[in-house]
Amino acid sequence: MEDLSKRAWPIPESVDELENYMKQRVGLGKSFDLGVRKLKVLRKDVHLYYVSGLCDTRFIIEIVEELVRINDHEKLSTDLFKIVENRLVNQSVQRIDTIDLAVTQTLSGLIVVAVEGSGIAFAVDVRNYPGRQPQEPDTEKVVRGSRDGFVENIILNTALTRRRIRDERLRFEMIKVGVRSKTDVAIGYLEDVADPDLLEIIRKEIQNIKVDGIPMADKTIEEFLLKQGFNPYPMVRYTERADVAAAHILEGHVIIYVDTSPSVIITPATYFHHIQHAEEYRQSPAVGTFVRWVRFFGVLTSLFLLPLWLLLVVEPSMLPAKLAFIGPNQQTNIPVIIQLFLADMGIEFLRIAAIHTPTPLSTAMGLIAALMIGQIAIDVGLFVPEVILYVAVSGIGTFTTPSYELSVANKITRLVLLILVALFHAPGFIIGATAFFLFLVNMKALNTPYFWPFLPFEPKAFLQILIRRAVPGSKIRPSIVHPRNKYRQPQNQTE
Prior knowledge:
Oligomer: single chain
Helix content: 40-55%
Distance between the termini: 72 Å
Number of domains: 4
């Protein structure tokens, strides 16, 4: 018997040796979900290996029936290998010649058919992954628009994208990541539009990932791809909407799909990509622009409202006479900075609690927070009313930020600015805001300036950030993705 300890070895001609390998190394006979179906076809052994929870049983039964019928219609002298290949009633049949590939395909949900004496097996795609059907993502809801979103099945996710872009130049490159998990990762792009250098960087970085597995899916891929360390600001954009992913592919972006994750990674991404929302493009340009400006104001409020208010509290001389009412009108024994931190952390507690609270109980939790905790905290003198007001407005600004990752990063920045204002007053705010701005300006995500198109300044692109233009007027793809074809619309239609 051959030494099959190295899985890169070719598939043995004896199916019994392959079965022994499956028993010794893969767990056949121990793992209840890993099985083998043994058939006698023209007096030769044919084995079908499968994982019961990942396969569609109906397809397996059809294939077994076809293989059994060979005994009734073929002669013993027939080339069994070619007959079996011809009788595998499935649209996806692949020849495999190594044990490593046979094991990987089996554990991925395909069935592997091994024929005695051939040294080659067939991988038949009968996958039926458990999961939910496409539905609207909770974090990216729109008033009008499609209600389908990505799910945990990479096949469905790429199909949702293919449905929206029926172009022969749309590509999905599949890479397996993880020595043990062998998770499917797909790179989606338009071949004649996407930047080849960006594609090469992403492809090389993903192929060089050496890790046992990626159970956290796309987030693990992001950390290997960007190596951002403790930088809180997101350097890629996530989306669970198929229409958003398709729109970015058409712009020239590269999308990374990871099996078991309902969100995809959009690269490259700038700061302004994180504050755009699909709702802006489901309304007229005027309404979309208004919604965008309101969102910008909400983001600025979440960042600077509390530090500015604290600055005016600690330095009331900076207030003009007509705004002298700003600031706490009551005296408390607790410093305002402590009140701000406690109230801000209270909102964070509520957000985390809302995630872990079952939906039927969430209303009760909101009533407890609003009626009991907030009001009683004011009555006993823990907070002054103005603190509750401004923290609440700042919290609403945080929730208006479309990107959850960006909203949390902005909250961290806000807390740092509060500390600087409390310690150094006006110089602390000025230095902190300047350092924050310079930090964002110097950031790069996959060689892409994070604050583009503001710095480096590009007037036309920056105008499109401020004003939502109509689709017929958006003829040029964003230069930041370095598209090979910069025109969104055919030249003969735009000239």
